Backbone:
């Protein structure tokens, strides 16, 4: 007979070899699935593109005065007051323009250059040899509301982004 004459030992080794191969491929499939799961988790947990902007980012731009309130209520602002503006730049400098006068024809702009910083909700402006702190009550893409306290008097300035 010319057939395959396998001994019990040969058959055992062939079965064991196929079992090991089957275990190897099963283990590799599991490892591949685990690796895929880990990679997917890292990708899905990466930094959000829609992260909420910080106060330092939101404040950048030009803001025009719309309202001043104090302990007596809202102040009546004339046309010159409503031209007052703050422009905050990304290099931490700012330009504050205040307008003196009562009528549109008599408005005279006074410009001061400042540096600024924000820590938590406190905006600090420095100009000449003066440092002025304001509490940020509200800051978003369209509105800036600052509270100033000076010798017990509290005033709130509201600006719109222009």
Residues:
């Amino acid at each position: 007979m010319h057939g395959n004459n396998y001994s019990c030992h040969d058959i055992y080794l062939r079965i064991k070899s196929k079992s090991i191969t089957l275990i190897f491929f099963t283990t590799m499939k599991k490892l591949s699935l685990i690796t895929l799961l880990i990679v997917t988790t890292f990708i899905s947990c990466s930094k959000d593109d829609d992260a909420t902007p910080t106060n330092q980012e939101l404040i950048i731009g030009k803001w025009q005065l719309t309202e001043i309130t104090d302990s007596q209520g809202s102040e009546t602002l004339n046309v010159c007051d409503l031209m007052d503006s703050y422009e905050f730049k990304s290099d931490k400098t700012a330009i504050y323009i205040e307008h003196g006068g009562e009528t549109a024809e008599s408005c005279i702009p006074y410009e001061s250059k400042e540096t600024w910083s924000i820590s938590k909700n406190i905006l600090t402006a420095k100009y000449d040899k003066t440092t002025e702190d304001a509490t940020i009550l509200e800051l978003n893409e369209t509105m800036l509301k600052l509270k100033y306290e000076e010798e017990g008097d509290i005033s709130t300035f509201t600006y719109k982004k222009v």
About this structure: The CA atoms of residues 74 and 146 lie 14 Å apart. DSSP finds two helices and nine strands in the chain.
